[in-house]
Every structure is written in C-alpha cells, then in structure tokens.
Amino acid sequence: MSAEEEENAAELKIPDEFLKAKCLMNCEVSLILEHKYEQLQQMADDPMNQMSQVFEKSLQYVKRFSRYKNPDAVRQVREILSRYQLAEFELCVLGNLCPETVEEAIAMVPSIKVHSLSRLQLFMFLRGKGNEPPDFITRGRAHDDEAIEKMLNDLSLIKKFE
Amino acid sequence: MFLKTQLSWNVLVPAENLDAEGLMLQRAILTRLLDDFATKKAVKDIGYFIAVTTLDRVGKGLISQQSGALLFPVDFSCITFKILPGETLEGVVHKVLKHGIFLRCGPAEKVYISHHKMAGYEYVPGENPCFVNDKGLKIENGSLVRVTVIAERYDEAEKDFRALVSLEGDFLGPV
C-alpha cells in the first residue's frame, strides 16, 4: 500500500454494524423528527413527557444544522448527489457541510479522491479475503476536480431556489 | 452521522394488555417497543437510538409460562446516531474550560476539543470564558464549530459516547 492509501485507511475503517445501515443527512432527519414531533403533539396532552432527551437533543441539532429546509429541496439534494456515484457516507457529509469549493469538498471527504480500484483493494486488505465490501463503500469512485466542481454547482442551485 | 438501520428486538407485552386483539394488540406491541427504544438510549455497536421509523414485521408471540406475558419478535427500522472516527461534522459549544472545549453533536454532549488540538487559540478567562486566535476568531458558549473526529468511546455506565475531536486542518474551526 502506498503512503497515501495508508493514510486514507482511516476514512474507510467502517465497522461491521454499518453493513446494513444507510446514512441520512441532517436535513432528512430533520423532516422525519419534526413530523414525529407533530404526531406526538396531536396524540398526547403533554408531548414533552413522551420525548426522550435523546430525541429532543437530536431534533434541536438537526433543525440547527440543516442546510435545506424545504422537503423538495431535500429530495433534490439526495437525487443530485446520487448521480455522482458517491458512497452513502460521502454523500451525507457533503450534503451536511455543503462545501463551496473543490478544495473544501476534498478536505471534508478525502476519500472522494481515492481511486476506486485501490479503494477496493484497501477494503479487502482491512477486512480479510472473501468478505464482501458493503455497498456504501464500493459504490464510491474517484472523482476529478471538474466532476466535483460540477456537483457543487448543482448543489448551490438548489439553495438559490429554496 | 445519522444512520437508518433495521433491528430485531423481542418485545414483552404483559398479560393485562392481551385481552386486546388485532389492531389494539398491534398498538400495545408498538407502544412497548417505543418505550423500550426510548429507555435503551444507546449501545456500543449501534450508537444512540433516535427514533423508530417503521414497524416492518411482528412474529408469533411466545407465552411466558410464569407471567402469562407474550414475547413478540419484532423487526423494525429506526434512526440512530454514531460518531465515526475520521468523520468531519459540526457542533455547538456548551462548555469552555481552560484545557479545552465541550461540544454538543446530535445527542452527544461529551465531544471534546483539547486545547492541544486548537493550535493558535489562547484561553481568555472571565465571566464568559472563550478561546481567541491571532486572527481575532472567537470560540465561546454557543459558537458553531466544525471539527474532525480523532476517536470515540462508549461509556457503559452513562450509556453515552465520548469523542475526541480536533479543529486543526483546512476548513475546520468556527463556522
């Protein structure tokens, strides 16, 4: 493994339990939790009683850290980012942080620069032979600066029309 | 990072709820599941339990001879939260100490930036202590900060996660 690939190992060291998991952006979680909160308000006299601390803190957090509020915009973000064959994890970090430049995007998600074949080799090495890498790692592939720039432009258009 | 995952749990419905049939029984099972879910808070491998999204499958109930309660195997989907090493995320400062800062990220409150991982920032004591760098950037209670995760650990006693994060790096720091 080259030094660069070794360095990137940290980004790809995703444990077993996430093999069946799908990642969600803050704005997606915000829509789901807000809807649940409304349901609670309709059902119970005292909705605060029904909410766990974990739920309440999470709701506060995702409301604060959602870059997109409109449900259509949220759907569009996922749709646009999905076109670029990113791993689930990469997609969500980008959708959460909304980098404005290619440099920032690569700084936030270094793995988008890793060549797809070496990424697979890396994973096989980490997990042992014969193990199938999870979908949300191998689906990502290398992106050149131009592709990343286009992706960021598409994303910024959604913000303008929100 | 928030995740959507499918889990299989056994839900215990006490004997008193078993007079109900059909929809009422489903509701009793769902209520117990939601209660168990909220109580469980967090586990090491999966993270924090945020909310149940769908009830996917309810299996046949098994009777407990002693209590008369029924145990139902339930498959459901839910949202969880886990802090992943290497991840870049944002949080809110809620405690400023001489040696570092505590952030709140999602439901996790013990996300810690040591002053060793805040190059260029100096501690400023006072009624509202803060950290300031040579460019005049200030980090205080309520500040939004973008950080990268160095390590995380599960605290069995508190059913909570702790994380060590850094704001050294390009595009990290106050937002």
Automatic annotation (TrEMBL), chain A:
GO terms for biological process: DNA-templated transcription initiation. GO terms for cellular component: nucleus; RNA polymerase complex. Keywords: Nucleus. InterPro entries: HRDC-like_sf (IPR010997), RNA_pol_Rpb4/RPC9_core (IPR006590), Rpb4-like (IPR045222), Rpb4/RPC9 (IPR005574), Rpb4/RPC9_sf (IPR038324). The keyword rRNA processing does not apply. Gene3D superfamilies: 1.20.1250.40. GO terms for molecular function: nucleotide binding. Residues 16-162 form the RNA polymerase Rpb4/RPC9 core domain. It comes from the Eukaryota. SUPFAM superfamilies: HRDC-like (SSF47819). It is found in: Nucleus. Belongs to the eukaryotic RPB4 RNA polymerase subunit family. This is RNA polymerase Rpb4/RPC9 core domain-containing protein. It comes from Salvia splendens (Scarlet sage).
